[in-house]
Amino acid sequence: MDPRTDDFYRRYAGRLASQPESRRSAMLPVVEAALPRGSRVLDVGAGAGRDVAGMLAAGLDAYGVEPSSEMRERALVQFPELAGRLRDGALPDLGRPFGDVAPDGFDGVVCSAVLMHVGADDLPGALSALAAMLRRSADGQQAAEGAVMLLALPEQRDGTLAEGRDVDGRSFANHAPACVAALLATIGFSLAAHTVSDAVLNATGTRWHTLTLRAADRA
Predict the structure, then answer these.
(1) What pTM value is reported for the model?
(2) Does domain 3-16+23-215 sit in CATH 1.10.1740.10?
(3) 4: which of 13, 136, 170, 208 lies 20 to 30 Å off by Cα?
C-alpha cells in the first residue's frame, strides 16, 4: 500500500473510534450463500474487522489479513473475539500469513474493496496470490475443485479519478470484471455469479461489482 493510501486508512481508523461501522456488510450474505457453515475463510484486506467478525458469528472459521496496523488495532477494539485471527499482509505479495493455522489452505477467500489499490501491472500477481491461499488440487498446482473466491470490485464513474487516485487520495484503478474473470480463468477459476449494484452511484460515483468464482473441475 502506497504512503498516501496508508495515510487515508490511518485517519479512517481514527474516525471509526467515534463512529464504528455497522456489524453487517453487503458482502456477508454473498459469503453465506457461497460457503457452508464451518468453512475456513480468509478475508484479504480485512479493514476494521467487520466482515471477519460477521463471518465468525455466522459459523464460519474466519481469519483476516490487513496491512494497516491502525485498522487492525481498531478491529480488536470493536471485535475482541478476533484476537489471533488478524495478521499483517498486503497484495500483491501475501506470502503465507496463516500457514500455521491453515496449512492445507482455505475453503474460501474474500477480497472486498481492495483490488482497486492494485495497479494493472500487479493485478495478475495479486489474483495468483489470492488463489494460493485456497486449498490445493492433488498435484498442488491449482486451487482444489470447489474452492471459492469472492470479490467486490468498485468502479469509479468517469471524472472521479485523477492521476490514478480517487477524491480521498487513495491509489485507485478500475479493473473491468470481465478482465478479472479472464485472468482467473487462466489459473483454473470459472465465474459462477456477477451482480452489479448502483445503490451508492449517485452519492459516491461508485458502481459495485460482486463476483463469485469457483475452482473449476479439471477432470
Answers:
(1) 0.94
(2) no
(3) 208
- Please state the length of the chain: 219
Q: What does the pLDDT look like over 7-33, one tens digit per residue?
A: 999 998 888 877 776 666 889 999 999
* Integer Cα distance of 91 and 100 in angstroms: 20
DSSP 8-class letter at 217? P
Burial of 18 (0-12, 13-18, 19+ CB in 10 A): exposed
Cα–Cα dist 212/109, whole Å: 10
In angstroms, the CA 105 to CA 129 distance is: 12
Closest CA to 47 of 95, 97, 3, 82: 82
User: Which run of H or E residues covers position 63?
Assistant: strand 61-65
- Judge if the upstream peptide bond of residue 97 is cis by omega within 30 degrees of 0: no
Q: 10 Å Cβ neighbour count for 167?
A: 12
- CB atoms under 10 Å from CB of 68, counted, come to 24
